[in-house]
Amino acid sequence: MFQQMKNIDTAFRQIKWFCYLLIIACVVISCYAVYKSYQSENDFRQHIYILANGKALEAFSADRNENIPVEARDHIASFHHNFFTLDPDEKVIQANITKALYLADNSAAKVYSDLKEQGYFTNIISGNISQQVSVDSIALDMNVYPYRFRFYGTEKLIRTTSIVTRSLITEGQLRNVSRSDNNPHGFLIEKWSTIENKDLNIQNRE
Length: 206
Hints:
This protein is α+β, with helices and mostly antiparallel strands. It has 2 domains: 2-48; 64-204, Roll (Nuclear Transport Factor 2, Chain: A), CATH 3.10.450.230. Helices cover 47% and strands 33% of the residues. The strands form 2 sheets. It has a 4-stranded antiparallel sheet, with helices on one face. It has a two-stranded antiparallel ribbon with strand order 1-2. Helix 2 packs antiparallel against helix 3 (90-101). It is rod-shaped, with a radius of gyration of 32 Å. The N and C termini lie far apart (119 Å).
């Protein structure tokens, strides 16, 4: 009888410890599941899907500080592309210049006004000239705010009889502004000026 009671007591303690272990295991599994759910939610928030040409493209969000140099160079390149890419069409010229002027302050507007008064854009249209610009490099100083930059590019003027290649060097500085549809990078070019814009080569067209 005594041995039977002892066996029952041992079995009860074993069942009790088994229940404790089962409860601990359930708590551990639940905590792990909550942690993985939280981690998955954070990972999901880091993913951005962009719809382009009918296709969903995956992108990743990042701290703005990590992307400042990249965004700054793209802002500078976009401004120069819009300002200097011209075709003999008044609407195309106006559309490109308008895009460019959203990215810069009055220093760019003044250059545009001066060129307009000199008849530069009228000559583009009347001479059926197409103007293109390509980026060679962009030097950016991130150690000083506003960020200073120097743009090095090549400009081509395509005429009916010739193609003129010019060097284009400009400089200015960037300051932070609010992002918008017209200024997606959130920068504004200030004190912009042209340092060099001279002919490098003239190629006759047959």
